[in-house]
Amino acid sequence: MDDICDIGHWKLIRCALPDTNAGYIIITTTRTMTVAEHIGGAYNLKPLSLQNSRILLYGRIFGNEGMDKCPEEGLIEVSNKILKKCAGVPLAIITIAGLLASKRRNKMDWYEVHNSIGTGLENNQDVMNMRKILSLSYYDLPAHLRTCLLYMSVFPEDYEVKQDDLIWLWIGEGFIQSGKQGKSLFEVGESYLNELINRSMIQPVYKYIVKDIFDCRVHDMVLELISSLSAEENFVTISNGVRHNSPSKKDRRLSLQSDKADHATLSVTMSMPQGVRSVVGFDSVVDLLAPSLHAFRGLRVLCLKGSHIPKCSPIKCLGNLVQLRCLFITGSMAQLPEEIGNLKYLQILHVAGSSIMRIPSTVVQLKDLICLKFNSGVTLSKRFGSLTSLVELSYCWVEDHPTRNIEELSNLTELRVLSFCSYTVTWDDSLNKSLVECLCKLQKIQILDISIGNGESNLDGWVAPSHLRRLRISSAGSPRCQLGCPNRRFLLTFPC
């Protein structure tokens, strides 16, 4: 059992375990000695040996597993000195490796890193020295990456957020201002995330069959660092029942992480909504937002994750939040109001994973929309083809008027991601032909997911763009697909 924070948590867990004479062993981890002693005694983990420290460092920098010798002779001496300061602590080694990997393979640059570590960990095991190493990696980041990393403090400890969701939230917050060299905002966001992963500041969590789809989290010590920095810089006001930044009129972002949060303190924060630009709420804290969300006139980002949202919820006032750029909702909710069409600046509407099964017809008024994600089975109204700025559309349900909907799709020429569903319509040659004609117009498509439940899909005649990365076709019949895709390898799956 990993990372038991306090004795109270252990007592709750202990109630579910058999008696101690049952002949079993429980292994727990904790960062608190008093917790370890209460549970039954501490075993202090030994630091990595110098050889294993080298294997970890060089493997992260040079990419060769099992290598305990530096492949560049000029860096042997300085790398040994750096490892001495890391004192066999894996997190310190991984963090420094991520920093060194971003530097030139130059002795002077590496010595600069070595000298910046200070006393390090070789003489003192205090957590503050580990924080010095993490801080060094943090302040070495470019300003735009520091901002993106600080944003991870809005999520609770051990929280895993989908990579795409994180990038869209960055875009909604305005951290990614413009595409570079013809890249979309999302592609620039992907490069930011990859850089933070390469520097070991964000950890990818692989739990899906497709390996380029993953969740993101940060190590607990990294979270402690960025939460502290967020408080110092007034970047995020965090309320989680354990800590709460002092509310002020300068609050820009609120992270409401637990319904155990101090209601009195939250009331003070919620009574000063003028400067708040972003609200992220988890679990049942949505109830705390209900009385005052309508007053957040300057709100740009509203993210309600895993929450039960009652019918009398503040969502009814969405049409009044005219500055809103990004709306994320997962959890139980009746429906979106028709007034959502008033949000003329809205760029991201993400309700996939919620109970919302209807998208108001007024959504076609949102001309700045670049991301529209909802559940399979939700029918879009006619004229959704007017949303020509869309980069991602998931899912497109074409049951009612398949031919018309495919024609509407063909207008969305900026699409990078498309998930396309049809389960009751009998898919025939005419519809296959219309779909191929549509796909031929979507020249920027990179990820395409087609699910057909009745009939046979046939994409013969479609020449896939060279930048296509992933194609998934699911069909009740045998999918037929003979693609031309020059100079590009991509994942192609045909589920049964």
From TrEMBL:
Gene Ontology terms describing biological process: defense response to bacterium; innate immune response-activating signaling pathway; plant-type hypersensitive response
Keyword Repeat in record: yes
Domain Disease resistance protein winged helix: from-to ranges: 154-226
Molecular functions per Gene Ontology: ADP binding
Matching SUPFAM superfamilies: L domain-like, P-loop containing nucleoside triphosphate hydrolases
Keyword annotations from UniProtKB, A to Z: Plant defense, Repeat
Domain Disease resistance R13L4/SHOC-2-like LRR per the UniProt entry, residue ranges: 276-475
InterPro entries: Apaf_helical, Disease_R_plants, LRR_dom_sf, LRR_R13L4/SHOC2-like, P-loop_NTPase, WH-like_DNA-bd_sf, WHD_DRP
The organism's place on the tree of life at top rank: Eukaryota
Protein name according to UniProt: NB-ARC domain-containing protein
Organism: Eleusine coracana subsp. coracana
